[in-house]
Amino acid sequence: MISDQSVSDGDPPGDGVASAVPFHPVGRHLAFTAKAIRDAFEDMLRASGASLGVWVVLNALSEQDVVSQKDLATHAHLDGATITHHIDRLEQRGLVRRAMDPADRRVRRIEATPEGVLLHEQLVAAAQEFERTVFAGVTEPERERLRKVLDRIDSNLLLLEG
């Protein structure tokens, strides 16, 4: 057993060999929880006839209506090749359509079709139910505090990048 004195003054207890004090980083806990949430969210999307790629694209389009493929990639935090793959699949399913931008023929504009809008509405309802389940027992003030803490962590991570 480690005494309070040995912990507080930094000296290892006993024979001078440091004992293993469990370290449970919050970041590890956050990463594992995020993975569990993502896995469950993807399961919910599959059960609703979609994928995370479908969700990301349709959700971004719902927020911005018609956008360029490049803007959509930026908004969804995806690279060009990945967003192209997702858009190709959605276009094959009739959920989005591409059109040339009349102002700049080099730009491809993406918009949700009526089928895409309908699927997005269904996915939003499923996502809201998912969130109710995941946050059962968590009050709205606790959720708001969590959002603020996650925003602060996000800001701190941006400092590491720069």
List keywords for this structure.
single chain; 162 residues; mainly alpha; Arc Repressor Mutant, subunit A; 3-stranded antiparallel beta sheet; 3 strands; 64% helix; disordered N terminus
Radius of gyration: 23 Å
The major sheet is characterized as:
3 strands, antiparallel
The CATH level-2 architecture of the domain at 47-132 is identified as Orthogonal Bundle
Number of strands: 3
Low-confidence stretches: 1-12
What are the secondary-structure elements, in order, as H or E? HHHEHHEEHH
Separation, N- and C-terminal Cα atoms: 43 Å
What is the global morphology? globular
Share of residues in helices: 55-70%
Our estimate of the beta-strand percent is 5-15%
Average the pLDDT over all residues and give the rounded result: 86
Total DSSP helices:
7
CATH level 1 class label of the domain at 47-132: Mainly Alpha
Would you tell me the structural class of the helices and strands?
Answer: mainly alpha
CATH superfamily of the domain at 47-132: Winged helix-like DNA-binding domain superfamily/Winged helix DNA-binding domain
